[in-house]
Amino acid sequence: MFEIGTAGRVGWQRRALGVGRLLKQDAEVISSEFRDDDAQRTAGTLAHLWWNSGLRERRFVALLQQARDITKARISAGQIPSGEPGRRQAMPYCLAVLRSLLPNRGMRA
Fold first, then answer.
1. Which DSSP category does 37 fall into?
2. Residue-level pLDDT at 28
């Protein structure tokens, strides 16, 4: 299972308030959908991107969903190279799309 928001300065506060719940749910679904081979690492990356973006959770999750939709469309069109069909490095590609949608595009996690 994912532990979004359990590390860092205010991890215990986030966990107590349920902040990160939406992100955790979406991260689990997307990781499964894209056959992520390291869902725990992806969850940590998403938490890091969210924290550093300064966005509210709902807005960040909306951007994550947009990145998911873009990734799925490009998979269907055969535009994501490397790997066998259905396993074309979709999760790293989705994270790259998400980074491009965030306000601070130069940020790396």
1. S
2. 92
Note down the domain range covering 93.
11-101
User: Is 3's pLDDT higher than 90?
Assistant: no
Task: Kindly list the distances between the CA atom of residue 77 and the CA atoms of 56, 68, 88, in Å, as whole numbers in the listed order.
Answer: 32, 14, 12
Tell me the pTM.
Answer: 0.73
Q: Report how far apart, in Å, the C-alpha atoms of 64 and of each of 21, 69, 82, 84 are.
A: 14, 9, 22, 24
83, 91 contact by CB (below 8 A)? no
pLDDT of the residue at 56: 93
CB atoms within 10 A of CB 37: 11
Q: How many domains does the chain have?
A: 1
